[in-house]
Every structure is written in structure tokens, then in C-alpha cells.
Input
Amino acid sequence: QAGDSIHVFVSNGRGEEVDVSLFDLMGRDTLYKGRHPALFQEVRDSVAIYGTDWEASFSIPLPSHISTGWYILQLSREAFSASTTLMVIPPKKPTKPIAWCLSTNTWNAYNHWGGFSIYTPNHTPTVSFHRPQLLADPFIQNTYANHQLFYQAANKDVYLATLLDSLNLDFDVYPMEALHEGWPQLSDYQTIMISTHSEYWSREMLNHLNSYLDSGASFVNLAGNVAAYRTFLD
Output
């Protein structure tokens, strides 16, 4: 939420400082720029299943005055750059008309950081959110290594965000966990929306969505292959 501190977890093999930027998705406002030390942290063999268990490298402040919505945290050093999605959630009753649930479950399912994912040849049925999330990068490139990731990642949602912005339609963004947990503020929105391959749903997500629809909310589905697999969140 606005005003929180963001704990950033980095492993840098050279142990050098990294440049850090925080800005809104449309690139209109840079909220933070700084340079921080980032040391090497061990990557275990089981990291894809159990997470990195890294120590926070540093923390940066999230301004208390910013609007809720979709922001980007970007780290760079020389020719290297990596970005990740940051969702700023309303603390109380929302004021925007649209709640957009990004496909965070699908991002994690396809994420092969740590050696394997649900889709790699040495696949696993269990994957951790507590590791670098390659598909949460809205600027991911369609390289040979990223080819499969490219078509499931946040970069596809940028097109819709740009369209909504051009129509002056304000929105907040949430992880799919919000629908799983049944966060009560979702019922305060006029519309709940999903997009881009929202493939992995829990039974609770479907039940909560039905409850929101029964309460009078609208639902916009702009994704394919929705709720194709039943998912368990721990």
C-alpha cells in the first residue's frame, strides 16, 4: 500500500551496486531513483519449489501520496536490466471503477527461474512465488530463451493498460490471490476484469467470483484458456 517500504531481494554475482527506479506503467512519473549495494546470494537446487530464502538486499520507500495502480520496479547495472510488476492496493474503499486481476498464477506456473517450472521437461507440480518472477516483467523480450514465457507474460497486459488509459478508464490491479482470498474491497468495484491467459484458478476463486456477480458486479473476461487447471494456493 502507499506509504509502505518495499523490501527488494537481489543476488549480484559481482557484489556491485545496482541502480533502482520506481515508476508508473505509463512512464509518466518516476517515484524513486537510487543506487544500492547488492551482494551475491546462494541459489539452491530446490529454489523453484521452496523459494530463494534470500535476505532483503535493501528497502525503498513507497510515497504515501501516490495513486493506487500498476507500477514498475526496475534494477539495472551496465548492460543488465530487470523489471517486475508492483501492485499498489487501496487500503480501504476503492474509488476506481475497475479491479483488474493480473494472471499472477499463470506467470508463476510458466516461470522457469531456478531450473524448472510446471512446463519444463523436469517439471514439478509445485512452484514458489518467492523467487524472481520472469513473467512479471512487462518489458520482457521475445528471445529464444524467453519464447514460451513471452506469450504468457505481463507484456501482453500493457496493451490493455494503454487502451484503458487512452479511454480515461481508471483501474486498480490485484494479484489473483485477491480473488482466492475473497478480498472484500473487490465487491466495491463496478467491474472485475481478467486478461491474458488466466489459466490457473482455485475453487475459491470461482466461488468468490460467483458471489461478486450475485452482488451486482460485472465481469469482463479478455483472456483465453481461462480456469483450465485447478490450483491449490498455500
